[in-house]
Amino acid sequence: MGNFSKAPKRLVTGVVLIHHGFIGSSGAYPLGPATREWITVGTGTLLIIGLWTPMTGVLVAIIELWIAISRPGDLSIPLLLGTLGAALAMLGPGAWSIDARLFGRRRIEIGNR
């Protein structure tokens, strides 16, 4: 069960980021906000495949904070996605990711005192 612990979080966060990016980019925005939405789609894709997860999580947190500050309205989705991005940056990619295949899986073992 431990091998699958982070994969659903990455998958769900990635799918929501892609959906949020496509919904946000369908409006008539100038280049700046549309670029943010396409970056959101790109980071969602990177999270789904598990590539560069810590850096991608930090980028998600920054972009979603940028979206929350620059757009009036409901802040719940950008704040949720930003929090999930920060959490995934701290948790790492997990066993089912390209990062684990490229760089090896890192395990934290806590010994008895």
List keywords for this structure.
113 residues; single chain; mainly alpha; elongated
Topology of helices and strands:
Layout: H1 7-25, H2 31-49, H3 53-70, H4 76-91, H5 98-103
Helix pairs in contact: 1-2, 1-4, 2-3, 3-4
Structural overview:
The protein has 113 residues and is mainly α. It has a domain at 31-95. Helices cover 69% and strands 0% of the residues. The protein has helices at 7-25, 31-49, 53-70, 76-91, 98-103. Helix 1 (7-25) runs antiparallel to helix 4. The longest helix is centred in the N-terminal third of the chain and has 19 residues, at 7-25. The chain is elongated. It starts with 6 loop residues before the first helix and ends in a 10-residue tail after the last helix. The mean pLDDT is 79.
How would you sum up this structure in a few lines?
With 113 residues, the chain is an all-alpha fold. The chain has a domain at 31-95. The chain has helices at 7-25, 31-49, 53-70, 76-91, 98-103.
Strand percent estimate: under 5%
Order of helices and strands: HHHHH
Q: What structural class results from the helix and strand content?
A: mainly alpha
Main beta-sheet strand count, sense and barrel state: none
**3D shape:** elongated
Q: pLDDT below 50 for ≥5 consecutive residues: which ranges?
A: none
N- to C-terminal distance = 26 Å
What is the overall pLDDT average? 79
What's the helix count?
Answer: 5
Cα gyration radius (Å):
15 Å
Total number of beta strands: 0
Helical content stands at 55-70%
